[in-house]
Every structure is written in structure tokens, then in C-alpha cells.
Amino acid sequence: MKMSALFAPTLKENPAEAEVISHSLMLRAGMIRQLSSGIYNILPLGLRSLEKIMNIVRRELNHADGQELLLPALQPGELWKETGRWDIYGPELIRFQDRRERDFCLGPTHEEVITDIARKEIRSYRQLPLLLYQIQTKFRDEIRPRFGVMRSREFIMKDLYSFDRDYEGLKVSYQKMYDAYSKIFASCGLEYIAVRADSGVIGGDVSHEFLIIADSGEEKVMRCPKCLVASTQEISDCPECHAGMEEKRGIEVGHIFQLGTKYSESMKAYFVDQDGKEKPLIMGCYGIGIGRTMAAAIEANHDENGIKWPWNIAPYEIIIIPVKLKNQAGMELAESISQQLAHQGYETIWDDREVSAGYKFKEADLIGFPIQVIVGEKALKNGTLEIKIRSNGKRIECTREQLVSVIK
Ligand code: ATP
Ligand code: MG
Ligand code: MG
Ligand code: MG
């Protein structure tokens, strides 16, 4: 891929509307554009990163026996009236009527829809446990949409729902998801903390939030500097080692809930157990904000020049930069290196533009390619390439033959 063909409208200045660094960098790197308050166009670079996060999520959830499906965003109000949430959810729920004056909403979450499937299709304990998930667009009319895709009104969420025979089963499903989340966030280059949380309007008893520590976080977390025990409650001393707790800010990227029978009772989702008795399904639900995870990854991985993408979620992995303007041999070498690496399975771009080397370096830093391969004077003289590793700024010289081993 040629840089001149890439649709990434970059910006030089920090956009005035961006209050947090991830929002600013996503706009500047040409990843997103606002359409309306809390509603975003996702441009090619943004989508490539989102797709990678979604695929990491899929890999880990499938590995934990999750099965992907796709539910409608458009939901009949009837279902929400059955659980009582039509009245409880408040103005965040986007409601309207169809041409026959029937109530509808745009799904902010999908407990009602999935429980409707469960009550129709799950008859016997033999069908349990069952873990179903989707990656889909959610709608919430947030009172204060802000920070770009971090808190928007339309956003992509992964939501998984677990169905078990009993509370023992629920605990197993819950732990599976807890472990899958740990792997997902680690794969995205994020250090998370899990804290006991309030279940809010989703409901249930036990719930944990997965938070990324960042100054721009909207949640207050108390953390023990010694044993790293964390809590969203105001505790005085650490319950483990009694050291004083530090106050930090956290971004909620994931939230898991043991729902129990809240939805299965109200919507009459029963199954026949081994003892022949009808029992309510025991449910759990598990969300991850995909766009918010991408934003949090930028909050955690950037410097004053731009994004430092963790390899696994970078829109592209490697940029090849010929530095000499109008030098045919340099251009050809860069293109051929790009093609070679692409052939070996890397996602590459080469900067074919007739702009200064300084400008190319600036944009490469801003967009945050994990690896820059610089084709300079030495490359033409004796074949020496310079590799810049974006995450730590290290520069390594190597030959073309050594390239792949250096990148690894
Ligand atoms: P918050 O407290 O930030 O409003 P929430 O507790 O309302 O989030 P959940 O209902 O737990 O959110 O949804 C699961 C996940 O969806 C959240 O952990 C978050 O990652 C993501 N999410 C929630 N609201 C938004 C939003 N407005 N924009 C982007 N992602 C969101
Ligand atoms: Mg919310
Ligand atoms: Mg919350
Ligand atoms: Mg939450």
C-alpha cells in the first residue's frame, strides 16, 4: 500500500473540541471524524484498529466456548415493558414509534432480546451451559457525550450472555469470562485492574468492572501502592496489607455481571432440569466497549508526537520511509521492501510521497506505526537500513536480510 493512496486526513494542530489525548490523537491521525454530537464516522485507520480488537475478542471468547450471533439493534418496546426497564431506563434509551404507533427502542444493551431467544429455544438442562455473544452497535443517548468514541451515543460493544442450570455453573461461566477478559486486554497492550462494582440498571448481585488507569478516567479508584488491591469504594486502608490507599482515575473498558434470575424470572425463561422440575435460567452478562478499548489503548500508549500502537491492534504494522526526495533508486528499494514484508504477512505501507523526510517522520510518529523502516543514504550505498521502534524510540541498523529478525 502506498501512503499517497491512504485515506487518513491528518491534522497538524490539536483540535479544540478534544478534551483528552486519545480523542485528539484519533482526530489528528485521521482515524475518526464527528458527524454529530457523540456520533462518529470511523475512517479506514480507525476501522482497522477496531477490527483487530474485535478479532482478539472473538478469538478469546471462542476459545472460552462462546458462540457468536447477531441480534437486531431495533427492539420492540414490549420486551422492555416485560422486564420493567421501559420505565426504569430513563432518557438514555432512544425510543420511538413505528408507523403503526408501536413502541420501539434502539438497543443500549440486549438482555431482553437474548432472554426472549432463551425462553423460546432452551428447553432442557442438556442445552446448558450456553454462552452467546455479539459484536454490535449500541445506542445510548448519553447526557454528556464526550471524549470521542470513549463516550459516544452510538458505539460498538461486545456483549456476551451466559445461561446456566445453577449458581455453581454461573460461577464457572463468570470465571471463564473474567479470564478471557484478562487475555483480551493484555493482547490489546493494556494493563487493567478489576474491581468489584455496582450493577446499576443492568442488575444482579456480583459484578466487576475492568478499568484502565489513566488520568483522563472518569471513575475514581482507590489502589494500594504495595499489593495493588483496588476498589471503587472510599476505603481507608488497604484490606490486605493496611497500607494507605492511593487515589487514581480509571477508564471502564469492560463490565461483567452475575445476573442470576432477574431476566429469566420476569420474562419466564425456564428450563426442565434433570430432576424433571422447571427452573429459571441462571444468567450472566459481560460487556466490552470496543471503541472505548481503542481509545484507552491510545491513552496508555502515546507520547507528545503521537500514538504508539501496541503491535496487535495497530492499523498497519510497518511503514517504509524513503528519505531522499526524487531519488528513483531509494523509492524502488522502499517499494520492494514493502512488498517483501507484505508477502511475509506483515501489514505495510511505503511512503511514496514527494514531501520532506521530516514531514514523513512526523506523520509516521503521529499515526503510530510500531515499526519504521528508514531507507536513507546508507541503504543506497551499502544496503544498511535503519529501523525505528516507535514504542521505545530505539534505532537499529541492519541489512535487508536481517530485517525480519529485527522486527520480531
Ligand atoms: P459508563 O459508566 O462509562 O457510562 P456503563 O457502566 O454505562 O459505562 P455498561 O452498561 O457496563 O456501561 O456497558 C459495557 C461497556 O460498554 C462499558 O464497560 C464500556 O466499555 C462500554 N460503553 C458504555 N457506554 C459507552 C459509551 N457511551 N460509549 C462507548 N462505550 C461505552
Ligand atoms: Mg453509562
Ligand atoms: Mg459504569
Ligand atoms: Mg458498567
Automatic annotation (TrEMBL):
It comes from Atribacter laminatus. One of its GO terms (molecular function) is proline-tRNA ligase activity. Residues 33-310 form the Aminoacyl-transfer RNA synthetases class-II family profile domain. It holds the Pfam family tRNA-synt_2b. It is found in: Cytoplasm. GO terms for cellular component: cytosol. This is Proline--tRNA ligase. Its EC number is 6.1.1.15. Its main location: cytoplasm. It comes from the Bacteria. CDD domains: ProRS_anticodon_short, ProRS_core_prok. Homodimer. Keywords: Aminoacyl-tRNA synthetase, ATP-binding, Cytoplasm, Ligase, Nucleotide-binding, Protein biosynthesis.
